[in-house]
Design a protein that fits this description.
By secondary structure, this protein is mainly beta. The protein has one domain. Helices cover 9% and strands 33% of the residues.
């Protein structure tokens, strides 16, 4: 089975824009997330992983917060993309290859991964490099 196209789009809007799905789900929790956190990974964190699994460790790295609104994410045609480039801290030391990205729930620690996937092309990080994900980076429900 699969989700219907309209529901796929509704689901992405619920997760990324905090937009209710009429008669099914809302965002009325006492403290709903206002941001989602994008993390970089040097290998696939896997479905059983969390945001710390294979997470980048270059000096000055930190997860990037993206607002859980239509100002942070664009949802259309069953896909979601960041409204603006997601920029990470410039590496001040260390060297690694970023192969995967995840969107999760925590700014630090073992946050829950909501979505993860490959970064193409991979990002070679070393001192002076500022990793960035473009607005053409997409997550697709299907």
């Amino acid at each position: 089975m699969s989700k219907g196209n309209t529901f796929e789009n509704d689901w992405l809007k619920l997760i990324f824009n905090a937009t209710a799905i009429a008669n099914i789900a809302d965002n009325a929790a006492s403290a709903p997330f206002t941001d989602l956190y994008v993390s970089l990974h040097t290998a696939d964190p896997g479905e059983a992983g969390d945001q710390t699994t294979n997470e980048a460790t270059y000096t000055s790295y930190a997860r990037a917060a993206v607002a859980r609104t239509s100002g942070g994410w664009t949802v259309t045609g069953n896909s979601v993309s960041p409204v603006a480039a997601v920029n990470f801290a410039e590496a001040t030391a260390g060297s690694e290859i970023i192969t995967h990205v995840a969107v999760g729930t925590a700014s630090t620690g073992t946050g829950k991964i909501l979505y993860s996937g490959t970064v193409t092309p991979n990002i070679a990080v070393s001192a002076g490099v500022t990793p960035s994900l473009k607005t053409t980076s997409t997550i697709t429900e299907d």
